[in-house]
Each structure stands twice: as structure tokens, then as C-alpha cells.
Design a protein that fits this description.
By secondary structure, this protein is an alpha+beta fold. It contains three helices and eleven strands; from the N terminus they run H-E-E-E-E-E-E-E-E-E-E-E-H-H. The chain is globular.
Length: about 180
Amino acid sequence: MFNALSTPLILLSLSLLLTPTSAIGRAIVTNECPDPIYLWSVGGTISPQHAIEPSTSYSEPFTRDPVSGGIALKISPVENGIFKPNVSQTIFAYNLDGNNVWYDMSDIFGDGFAGRTMSLKPSDASCSEIVWGTGKQPAGSAVRVCGAEGDLELTFCTGGCLPSWCKWLLCVGWGSWWANLFV
């Protein structure tokens, strides 16, 4: 039934099947804000727009882009925002590098989510989170690294927006001045 050549091939096939493989984590963007937010996954190409309605999420498995290396999840409070001039974008960038994923956050063209708390939390508690308490990019670099098997979740309006008394101030234009007193 088995010959001398088939036995090693069967054993090799079984060992490959039984070898543990590490699972790849996901980049997740969750919207806890009262309005939709809009996301594009950008590497060597740009994905279609994804509208993330309140209390919903977008996710994608970590991938390494063959052209650019990394992926930028560009998020805007404005529909079709990345295609309009000078519309604010928050960028959740990641780069899958073997068993690790490098990640950071940044803003371009202003702070479109000012007054809304944002947090980028790894599912692995030993990895560093990034929190923007007032929705504005703090000074300095926020590049972090974590194992690629865990998820990274960027949540907008974590725990809701600023306190209700402060939301009123945001509406009348005092928000950025007032909110910075509490940072």
C-alpha cells in the first residue's frame, strides 16, 4: 500500500498541516459618534468609500501593500472627503512587517474631529495605545509596534464626545479654547 517514497511525503504533508500558523489581526475603525464617518483604505490603490454609520465598525485584515508597503486608512467627517480640496483627514496607518505591525495616527488639512475623543487601542494589553483626548493630534511622533496577531481598533467619540456642557461651548466656538484647559 505505501512504498518507501510515499511515507516521507505523507509525513511531510501531515507536519505542514499540523504546524501552527499565526493568525493575522485586523485594523478596525469604530464609529461611536452621532453622525457617519467616511473611510478609504489606501495603499498602491484607493478603495471605494466606506460609510461607517453610528454604532458600527469597518475592519480589514492586516495586509502588506505590494506597491507602498503600508496601508493608510483615511477617515473624514465629510462624504467623499479625500477627493475634496483641504478637507480634514485622520489617518490610521499601519505596516505589516513579518510578525509585527507598526502603526500610528496623524491628521492632515486640519482637525476635522476636534472635540471628539479618539483612541487607537491594541487588543494585546502589552502594546501601547494612542489617545487624542480632544480629537487633535498631539505634538511628537506616535509610531508604535505590536505583534501582528492582535487587532488594532481606532474608535471615534470613545465614551461619547466631550461632556454635554462642553458640547454647547463647541457649538458657540469656544470649544477648542475651553477643551484645551482640560487636556
